[in-house]
Amino acid sequence: MVASVFLIGLVLLAVCWPWVSDLGNQHSDAQFAEPSAGHWFGTDVHGRDLFGRVMAGTRISLLVGLVGALVSLVIGVLWGATAGLLGGRWDNWMMRTVDVLYSLPSIIFVIVIITTLEGVVQGWVESAFGGDGGETARHLLLYAGLGAVSWLTMARIVRGQVLALREQQFVEAARSLGLGTWTILWRHILPNVFGVVIVYLTLTLPAVVLYESFLSYLGLGIQPPQASLGSLIAEGAAQINPVRVYWWMIVFPAGALAALLMALNFLGDGLRDVFDPKSTNER
């Protein structure tokens, strides 16, 4: 419950604050200002309010994480449910494909996707919508790449649930009534794995946020002037030198990322207890 309240407040701040703050304004006389009543998190190298930047970065990190998690949800549920329900050769072929993808280093796979396809996607976006499509192309590749490496565990979990459910009497009754495979899947199988899917989705979201932050830290994700928590941490790390350490530029973005990930994980644990009473009884 505490994690839920914290996340709701953080989302409201992330959505609303950048619109009411002087996020984009630069004040040359306020460069590297320490935290104060006027600037809660201090200012950055350009004199911009760091609290507003952190809220904007949280908003983008959450957006990328949510879209990537939803992509993994759609692919993982459909793949795992289909493999588990069909069984036989289809199940064997589909799960061996998952095993092969598991053997690939996921973060390197995402980097290869971004660096290889960015020019192609940017050209397609510019020809379709006009203007500079670099930013849009980077966002689309982030969504697709992070979703493409996050659905594998979801597929395995859903397949295991479907293998157990397809032998239940209500599924046999549906077959005896003449319902087709896909009708049984949508009407009877998927509603019964909903709880497990929701729990794992809340645990996938922080993993995708962490991936995005790492890529942005390396300069392969969100690019300036936009901000994500990873790029803000990178900006703060660049200002650490033997002469002066502007500690607030790395402490506050890193603290926001850590608090966000912890809250999401606590929320996932709480939802697991709600949807799986056995785990609570075992404790």
Structure description:
It is a single chain. The chain is mostly helical. It has a single domain, classed as Orthogonal Bundle (MetI-like fold), CATH 1.10.3720.10. It has twelve helices and no strands. Helix 2 (50-86) crosses helix 10. The two termini are 19 Å apart.
What is the name of the CATH architecture? Answer: Orthogonal Bundle
How many distinct folded domains? 1
Encode the helix/strand succession as letters: HHHHHHHHHHHH
Query: Strand portion, in percent?
Result: under 5%
| Structure classification | mainly alpha
Considering the chains and any ligands shown, give keywords for the structure:
283 residues, mainly alpha, MetI-like fold, 12 helices
Secondary structure elements and their pairing?
Blueprint: H1 2-20, H2 50-86, H3 88-102, H4 106-129, H5 134-150, H6 152-165, H7 169-176, H8 181-189, H9 194-217, H10 229-238, H11 248-275, H12 277-282
Quick gist of this model?
It is built from 12 helices and no strands.
